[in-house]
Amino acid sequence: MVFIKPPTENTMKKKQAQHTREQNSRRFQDQRGSVLLLSLLIMASTLTAASSFGIITIQNLRQSGSVDNGIRAYYAAESAVEDGLYEIRKNLTAVSGMAPTGSLSNGGAWSRSITTTVNQITSSISENDFIYLDLYDPDDSLVSKNIKQLVLTWSGAGSWLEVQIAPWKGSLWTDSNLGAPTAQVYSVTQSPKTVTLNSLNSLLYRVRLKALYADIDAITVSAKDESGADAPIPAQITMYGTGEFSRANQVVRATMPQRSPLSGVADYVLFIEEDLIK
């Protein structure tokens, strides 16, 4: 017969203490894994937030730089147009002799393209004011553009349109064979109106369009040649100035008469022997 000695109280306490230590060890290992996972999540969130903030900051800096470069490019394009206007109007430089490119002291550059005709003209005319159309090339005033008719379309309640046609040949505005300039008046109810110019060949024309009795809100002018086909209207500059600075590009367009337009204040002249005092 085998007798089993029952465990003593100390032995049971030792076993219980060992079991408790094992449980605490497993619990600590589980907690250590959770802390590691939590730390990784916090680090990932911090890195994501820092990266997003950095990307936004870089984009804002780039956008600010692009805006600054765009402003400088715009003024470079405007310089191209202003320089062209000065050369054409003040120095009477021929369009063919103008520089196509240029540079600025701030590092910007510009390029320029110019056309000297348009398919039609649209403008407004105040009461008793007028606009001039030069139907010839100011750079070569002896070249006829073979324009035989003008088609005029306008609006403006109660307005009348006076069309004055001054034909000339060579360097003379008056010619014994051509006579004095002629004027015709049309009511707005007659719009659109086709006006026939002198039928002679090789003539140059200056046409004055004047608003009578009321403002002309908008008038559109197109030209026809002797066959009735559309003809380009000369002496009208369309200028494109392209400005460049760094990687920015801006374009400015300007449309204007090739020569300085006259104003309605010059519609009459006073000759007196005394000084005029305002």
Please explain how this structure is put together.
With 278 residues, this protein is of the alpha+beta class. The chain is built from 1 helix and 13 strands; from the N terminus they run H-E-E-E-E-E-E-E-E-E-E-E-E-E. The strands form 3 sheets. Strands 3, 5, 8, 10 and 11 form a 5-stranded antiparallel beta sheet that branches. Strands 1-2-12-13 form a 4-stranded antiparallel beta sheet. The longest helix has 81 residues, at 9-89. The chain is elongated. The termini are far apart.
**Separation, N- and C-terminal Cα atoms:** 149 Å
Fraction of residues in β-strands = 25-35%
Low-pLDDT stretches are none
Q: H/E order of the elements?
A: HEEEEEEEEEEEEE
Structural class: alpha+beta
User: How much helix is in the residues?
Assistant: 25-40%
What Rg do the Cα atoms give?
42 Å
**Envelope shape:** elongated
- Round the mean pLDDT to the nearest integer and report it: 80
Please describe the biggest sheet, giving its number of strands, its sense, and whether it closes into a barrel: 5 strands, antiparallel
Q: Please work out how many helical segments DSSP would assign.
A: 1
Please count the beta strands (DSSP E, at least 2 residues each).
Answer: 13
Please specify the SSE layout and strand pairing.
Elements: H1 9-89, E1 101-103, E2 109-118, E3 120-125, E4 130-134, E5 149-155, E6 160-168, E7 182-187, E8 193-196, E9 204-212, E10 216-224, E11 230-231, E12 233-245, E13 248-257
Antiparallel strand pairs: 1-2, 2-12, 3-10, 4-9, 5-8, 5-10, 6-7, 6-9, 10-11, 12-13
Task: Give the tags.
alpha+beta, 33% strand, 5-stranded antiparallel beta sheet, 278 residues, 1 helix, 29% helix, elongated, 4-stranded antiparallel beta sheet, 13 strands
